[in-house]
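Translate sequence into structure tokens.
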Amino acid sequence: MTFAKCPWWQIDRLHKDYESGDPDWELLRESWLAVYASWGIVFNSFSELEQLYIDYMKTELGHQRVWAVGPVLSLDKDVVGYANRGGSSSVPFHELMAWLDSGKEKSVLYVCFGSVVTLTVKQMREVASSLELSRVPFVWCVRNPSNNEQVTDDYNTILKGLEERVEKGRGFVIKGWAPQLAILRHKAVGAFLTNCGWNSALEGLMTGVLLLTWPMFADQYTNAELVIDQLGLGIRVAEGERKLPEPSELARILDESMKEENIPERVKAREIKEAAVKALKGGSSDKYLDDLVKNLNELSLAANKV
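Result follows.
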């Protein structure tokens, strides 16, 4: 397998974190080889976001059946529909929307580290302290720790203390699942503190909010590199699964990122949002999807003749 002309930043993290022969590396390696050997490759992305890498698949790896059909997200503005597509939440959807409706445009920070990562108790304390010090209105979605009563108790104590200390109405905590796309699409939300999993990154890009990244494992590191260093539409706030951010410094970043409307990262985020919508409305992703369907039909006809 060759990486000719592939930017080193893409594989540098994997190069450092994995060793040949260990099970995790072999799983990744076999997955990559299976992708390269496949009949075709469908990406949940779009040309305007990753043209360099789509071209790389075609020119350097010789794989001509490559389709970027994303973002695979609905353009429907009916936020109620988003609320019914996920898991259970600790707060009623209408209460969340009413709270957001009361906020100023682009004033609220949304915090969520995905459905896999569980913050350590120390990380919870640091994030809570950062939110308290920042004075920024926030919605914090907290994944419930599984099967650990002590950690659950510690979580509840931290969250209760945060809610008691911040002024009434400034913070909104959701335990468990949150209607993320509905939150990000609300006009009151201006930034997203995320671990930069690909689905979350795409939802942030699709809604034009500023991405504040804290990647913790797997592809989150390279996703954050793409968002920040290659595309220039996000700000790195931390990195690492066991990282402990310094509360006053994180609070400063949160506060400054919410105050400035026309910083380069926000301008770029708005541009990417427009590009994503155009890609789905008759643009590159729409055309790729038509071509994918055409190729699948031809494949089906050829198989029926055998």
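Note: The mean pLDDT is 87.
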